[in-house]
Amino acid sequence: MSSETFERPAWKVLAVPGPDRAFVVASGASFEDRDPTTQEVVAEVRASTPEDVDLAVERADQAFWHARWRNDGAIRARVLYGFAQRLRDNRDALAELLTREQGKTIGEARSEIVGSAEMVEYYAGLARSIEGRALALGDDAHGVVIREPLGVVAVITPWNWPLTLLMRSLAPALAAGNTCVVKPASLTPAITVEALAHLAAVSELPDGVVTCVLGPGGVVGDALVGHPKVHMIAFTGESGTGINVMRRAAADLRKVALELGGKSPNLVFADANLDKALDGAMNAIFTTTGQICTAGSRLLVEASIYDEFVGRLLQRTAALRLGDPLDPRTTLAPLVSAAQQRVVGEYVEIGRREGTLLTDDRVLDGPVTSVGCFAAPTIIADLPLASRAVQEEIFGPVLTVHPFGDEEEAVAIAENTEFGLAAGLWTADLNRAWRVGRALRSGTVWINTYHHFYAEAEVGGFRKSGLGRQQGLAGLYEFTETKHLNFDSKETLW
Ligand code: NAD
User: Which domain holds residue 358?
Assistant: First the structure.
């Protein structure tokens, strides 16, 4: 059976914000939000103006100062649990919208909705356990250190995992008692608004605690980052954008948490379980069609198994099924946009010029693949380490492969990067796993696995991959400040 036999269900164009979406402030020009598979319009979206951003931040500020929200963890827990349940109950409808708007496979979209609900549940549980500590400071003095929310938090998100990446900042920010203004990527406004509508529908959520603005980063995002009443910016996106956000926030010393780009190495040693390592290498680079910050886009293979391993990888790559991401048989979805398709094409040309293209140039001329923003899965060998295709984040299904002689060389190649978000390593030797795992300077090192995330385990970057940590307890504390209340009953101060 070919993917061409798949019949897409009909779609009714959404109006965003649409009725009952008072938590969105968007009174500017409309723009069309298109499906990267069919080019059909998914939603007509109104952008926010800089005045709308002012209004949204003002609302969030009022809600912070006037609501019981910041002092009552029980309300926050109930609201977040209610939200998570609504995400679960609406999994299929949200997943279909996510696939239509972003282009990812329907299976991935469903697991993104469930993973987002799990993230919200994890922080719902912590909302009642934001603990401080007591200090005995002498006979007449003691102190209490408490954690307080910061105020208004701007949450700015990218398009590749628009809900998971939203929830892992929004949920801890809310659990800690902050109020939030959300700005999604321009390519994924509809799924963001539809998911947030399930939060807005929880009856105990006070007005103004969550507001959403829409539109281009350079205008709407910039106005939000520059707003004097925004106390913290939780930004997920490209390293270059993150650096600019930090510069802008530095002008009046506002806090930033930055989750940025990557160029993750995936190291396969000869003693590894090679079947599992092959699965891992495929998952590392082809998940979300390579449009994932942790993509294992540099595969390093021990020289003694290099030819065999790469040969088997090529066979598996040839079997990938490109097609309609709503069709459950599709294993490689389109890219998010024509612009992303052009970027990926440019890197493939660099690979062709500077190295050896190991994959056949697949002709994408089927009824689905010729219309959608598809890119053929590509594996490139023999590239100099300084090549842009090895150093820069491509965000597409493009893998570079590199042989190594020994552990030392493997680590040297892996560390030849300005990023440090994630890494994978495959070996049966526990001591080597420990040594190499310690040597790799990345926020996550997967050992004999890849792309497993847990709400309770921190993620984040070394070097240009970011600043601060998300998820886990550290991810909650990012959205708090400590305060020391010092009590001293001595009669004189001098
Ligand atoms: P991007 O940097 O272009 O945009 C991210 C967000 O920032 C969008 O909402 C965008 O509108 C906004 N933005 C753009 N310019 C802005 C400005 N001047 N001021 C304020 N906001 C602005 O990134 P993208 O293309 O949406 O996403 C892909 C990138 O995100 C990749 O680099 C990827 O590695 C990174 N990413 C990182 C993580 C992580 O956890 N480290 C996760 C997912 C994606």
Answer: 265-454
